[in-house]
Amino acid sequence: MTERCVFCEGEGGRTVWRDARCRVVVADEAFPGFCRVIWKAHVREMTDLDAIDRDHLMRVVWATEAALRARVAPDKMNLASLGNVTPHLHWHVVPRFTDDSHFPQPVWGARQRDAAPRALPPDFADDLARDLRRAIDGA
Amino acid sequence: MTERCVFCEGEGGRTVWRDARCRVVVADEAFPGFCRVIWKAHVREMTDLDAIDRDHLMRVVWATEAALRARVAPDKMNLASLGNVTPHLHWHVVPRFTDDSHFPQPVWGARQRDAAPRALPPDFADDLARDLRRAIDGA
User: Fold this and answer.
1) Arithmetic mean of pLDDT, B119-123
2) B47 in contact with chain A, both atoms CB, cutoff 8 A
3) What are the pLDDT digits (tens) for B61-113?
4) To the nearest whole angstrom, how far is the Cα of A33 from the nearest Cα of chain B?
5) Fewest beta carbons less than 10 Å away: which of A31, B50, B58, B62?
């Protein structure tokens, strides 16, 4: 990297799964269950990865989506890889609810209503970590 | 589907590639080169597809990203599958420029500046169609 990068310098959230290539973090966002899947190396675009690494990263994204759907039963899942602010490859994996603060806007869009983020069980991150180990590592 | 769906009832843009499972359209949006990859069946989430279909859809997304990068040389690519408004599986594949109207916000975020969309060559869609046939079909 040529400039300071938050995903090179820090975890970007509470890490619930990792391997040598990427990690899953629960983000500190006002949307409960908002996770990010962050590629370890400072790579810019999905098409900068080779096909094997791309498939690996997406397998982790799908596992994260599946675990979140099972744990929090969202009305919709939102997936995005933008990187305009932090051009270090990462995926937003966001459970959405029709009564959340921004629905049906993306979480980056205009707020639609006052809505307190719904509470997650206190052991949500530990449960998600176990889900991901099981789904990805078969452990 | 249980309600009317724009992606069941219409193409959703100018179709530049299709097969039996999905299509790529150039969208009518104020971001030149904005494409969508639309799954044909009315499916809601990526994890509602089986792994083979998921891989196929993403292979088309990567081919679209690669073709757009080669054709319009964006500063950043943005990828998103949201579906809050239209819960019919589709990917936004959006070339972004640091001087476009919304950068670094997502295209769904707050406008940052007045900026006319940059012009694309008149045969852009035909060229993209040829790129995709070559990349995906080997034709």
Assistant:
1) 92
2) yes
3) 999 999 999 999 999 999 999 999 999 999 999 999 999 999 999 999 999 99
4) 16
5) B50
Residues 6+ away with beta carbon under 8 Å from B65: A45, A46, A47, B77, B79, B93
Q: Which residues pair with B26 in a beta bridge?
A: B14, B35
Residue A23 has pLDDT above 60, yes or no: yes
Using the beta-carbon criterion (under 8 Å), do A87 and B76 form an inter-chain contact?
yes
Q: Is the pLDDT of residue A1 over 60?
A: no
Q: Do B104 and A87 touch (CB under 8 A)?
A: no
ipTM of this complex prediction, to 2 decimal places: 0.96
User: A89 vs chain B: nearest CA distance in angstroms?
Assistant: 11
Q: How far is CA A37 from CA A24, A26, A110, B103, B123, in A?
A: 4, 9, 24, 22, 37
Whole-number Å distance between alpha carbons of B138 and A74? 39
Q: Give the length of chain A.
A: 139
Contact B79 A55 (CB under 8 A): no
- Ramachandran assignment for B12, one of left (phi > 0), alpha (psi -120 to 50 degrees), beta (any other): left
Q: By the CB < 8 Å criterion, does A121 face chain B? A: no
Place of tokens 């949500």: A124
The residues, any chain, with a CB within 8 Å of residue B114's CB and separated by 6 or more, are B101
Task: Average the pLDDT over A14-20 and give the result.
Answer: 98
Amino acid at A88: H
Q: What is the pLDDT of residue A131?
A: 98
pTM: 0.97
Q: Taking a contact as any Cβ pair under 8 Å apart, which residues of chain A between 2 and 41 contact chain B?
A: none
What is the reported pLDDT for B2?
57
pLDDT attached to residue A81:
98
Are B47 and A69 in contact (CB < 8 Å)? yes
